[in-house]
Amino acid sequence: MSTIAVGSFIIECNHFGGELADLDTFRRYDYVTDDDVLKVNDGAVGGMLRTLEEAGHSAHPLLVASACPSSLVTDTAYDEIKSQMLDRLPSSVDGVLLALHGSSASQSIGDLEGDLIEAVRRQVGSAPIVGTLDLHAHVTQQMIDHCDALLAWETYPHRDAFTTGERGAATIVDILSGSLKPTMVSAKVPVLVSGILGHTEGEGPFADVMRAAKRIEQDDATVYSTSAFLVHPYLDAAEMGGGAVVITNDDESYAQKVAVDLATDYGNRRFDLEPELVTPEAAIAASRSLATGTIVLAETADCCGGGAAGDSVHGLRALLEYAPDASAYVPVVDPEAANVCHRADAGQTVTLSIGHRLDEKWGIPIETEAVVHELTDGRFTYSGGIWDGREAEMGPSALVEIGSTLVGISSHPTYEWAGEQLQHFYVDYRQVRFVVAKNPMNYRIAFPEALEAFVLDTAGPTPPTCRHLPYKHVERPYYPADEAQPVVRVYRKRRD
Ligand SMILES: [Zn+2]
After folding, report:
1. Ligand 1 centroid – CA 123 distance (Å)
2. Domain spans, the chain
3. CA separation for the pair 483, 131 (Å, rounded)
4. Is residue 118 classed exposed, middle or buried when 0-12, 13-18 and 19+ CB atoms within 10 A define those classes?
5. Which CATH class is domain 3-273+488-492?
6. Which of 23, 426, 455, 495 counts the most CB atoms within 10 A of its CB?
7. How far is CA 481 from the centre of its chain?
8. 134 CA to middle of ligand 1, Å?
9. pLDDT-derived band of residue 123, with 50, 70 and 90 as boundaries?
10. CB atoms within 10 A of CB 293
11. How much distance in Å is there from the Cα of 381 to the middle of ligand 1?
């Protein structure tokens, strides 16, 4: 029986906007240590623990910290998480399992996963380290150098955190038994696209890449694992791109060949990954000729799940102006507006200045009167995804009505999965003509019966195209800013 240390640090960071993530941000989602880690039965850590137990190994708990995406992690929060993790890590463990995201950054460090993995490596010497990643990870040389194996989610929307944890644990079990001598190569192309066409279910450019990757993993006996990546494009770091990480059983040149083929295939599909955009006004105008039903306005530039503050009112403003009589629902994060509502009673009319309060650079607030319908504590439970079964906190929240539009006002950004925030306010999306979704992907889960969806071209830190993002560290050329054929970069483990 071996002893495997298990820990997790999951957050996706945004260099263009949103709010900083401090320790409270993590505590609102997931922050547990010691024996409480061993009670985790969902997400990647739940899967890791299950597989270790089944294989007869013992888990040594470190720390589990995860949070809704944000701007950067504060230096204080990262230092604390890192030292809490390392303080609990004995140098004598037989291996380490880390459930990570892969696209996080702090105020001072651009690659937190690379930093953390390297620190763990220094502490455990040559013991195997296996990490699981989000498929939006920015896989770096530092991660490759200090980790024995990296495996990513296979699904977007992300439904497979648990099974990815199981696969990660199975990998370390195979390494410890001697049946796997992992050789890992990453290959990627500078393609930076939003998540809108990155789904892995049904037809789609990334779905094809993922299926090809998984076919190789299943059918090719030399290949142990393939992971396909869309990078989170709202990080700003050198050498960002999408592609693949391939692990073979001790065959580096073959791992490289498979990784390069997958990254090349991904790069060749780049034109199919750029979405069509419309202005909110044009989307509303186009909706007039559509049948009865719910129309999704995807205001993905303000995606809390990509690190934005969720405080934009571009969609709301357009609805009030161009569809003043249509029923609609819009989510807005605005703690001050929520506070104004909470000082009133349900049924009262309040004067609100709402929107663009947390991250002011993307627009101006709407000054309006609103009728307060409901006041809540903002707590809800996720019904799937990365935080399946976990309670999340929107903070003091209110459902108000502005004209014919319902606005769900919350105090903290929360990740949108399957419409839990609407359900919290007892809003049925099928009863409104327009629903604003602030995500590029999960609206497919949240609003399965919607008639039509438009991707809005609005300002924010998670825009639907990365063509004009003011990157400082991303090198040119990159798609879609440049038309050049993308060049594949390869990352092998550097050896001393
Ligand atoms: Zn992701």
Report:
1. 29
2. 3-273+488-492, 280-455
3. 34
4. middle
5. alpha beta
6. 455
7. 23
8. 5
9. very high
10. 12
11. 19
